[in-house]
Amino acid sequence: MATKIGVPPAPAAKGAALSKEEIMRYSRHLIMPEVGMEGQLKIKAAKVLCIGTGGLGAPLGLYLAAAGVGRIGLVDFDVVDSTNLQRQVLFGTQDVGKPKTEAAANRLRDLNPDIQIDTFETQLTSANALELFNDYDIIVDGTDNFPTRYLVNDASVMTGKLNVYGSIFRFEGQITVFGAPDGPCYRCLYPEPPPPGLVPSCAEGGVLGVLPGIVGTIQAAEALKLIIGKGDPLIGRLLLFDALAMKFRELKLRKNPDCPVCGTHPTQKGLIDYAEFCGVRGEEAPSTVTNIPEITPKELKARLDKGDDIYVLDVREPHEYQICNINGHLIPLGELPQRVHELDSSKEIVAHCKSGKRSAQAVEFLRGAGFKKIQNLKGGILAWSDEVDPSVPKY
Questions:
Q1: For this structure, is 50 an active site residue?
Q2: Which residue segment(s) compose the domain that 295 sits in?
Q3: Active-site residue 353, yes or no?
Q4: pTM for this structure?
Q5: Tell me: the pLDDT tens digits for 11-57?
Q6: Which of 148, 154, 260, 292 could bridge across to 287 with cysteines, CB 3.0–4.6 Å?
Q7: Tally of domains in the chain
Q8: Looking at the structure, do residues 93 and 193 belong to the same domain, yes or no?
Q9: What is the pLDDT of residue 284?
Q10: Given 202, 262, 278, 324, which residue is catalytic?
Q11: What ranges in the chain are assigned the alpha helix state H?
Q12: 339, 261: one domain
């Protein structure tokens, strides 16, 4: 790693050398003076831990393995889903249903059988993060939720590891390097998490399939630069990419001397409960938290078949309605306060969205506006597809 940023270079393994086959494989690196034999041996000796093997982790893993990073750790507890294939290029159709770490490891070992792949089919938690991080030189954050991002950041700082960060949403991406001795950490940029539900996930808001490929490969480039100690890494710089406008721009980041984790006098000495910190307790079951009345898809179908006069309110976005619908009346959640006059408060209403989360917010709002006969469709249109009508596409 680059001495100029205050991190000692990663030494090549004692007595390490490249075989004749490796010299051929990495020849395009070896003929570059910035890499050469010395740099390639550093790459071979490097240990990189990838948090997540999805959108960002897929291109990241491919390029780190192709470059010859000697030991790559993969942390993920998810399985491959058909919706992943639009962007997660590590996986093929035959991998659907398999653990992501298993499918990813198989692909990376096929790409480069000379490297070591460690798989951790587990959720990263405050109980295991420090132990996992201790065995690696660099941590690369490919996660998609705020609790894990804060956890990765704090564990990286506490173990003295650089954190190559990336995030994506729709057409936009961010990349930087956190955790350098004189550089900022994630908490310097985002001291407090956003309110739960304010920032949609990729599953809720979507993502252009190629975007994680662009951002993930930039993360891989940053990791390789840090390993060989060349170039100007994204420390103290947040790189922003807009694929729709095809523009890059850069923001300067500064270390916060009062940061509770990386500041001059840190006040947080250990890892915490990050779900609680981000306020996402019970986020997947809002009706339990706010006592919102629910109806199951089967119950709703039975009542509609009986001819009960029920107003089905669809609070998704118009483009989601085009994908699939159950003949509900479309009023997107964001427009509901301005269009509430279109609803009859004396009529029975069932609100639904994709999974039940947004419609629960709609029910809560309408109850506050005086609506009494309103329920949330439990599980949303996804549950309707599972339990009532499999011909309704899932997305």
A1: no
A2: 286-387
A3: yes
A4: 0.79
A5: 444 447 899 999 999 999 999 999 999 999 999 999 999 999 999 99
A6: 292
A7: 2
A8: yes
A9: 41
A10: 202
A11: 20-25, 27-30, 36-45, 57-67, 100-111, 129-134, 146-159, 186-189, 202-205, 211-228, 274-277, 286-290, 297-305, 318-323, 336-339, 357-368, 380-387
A12: no
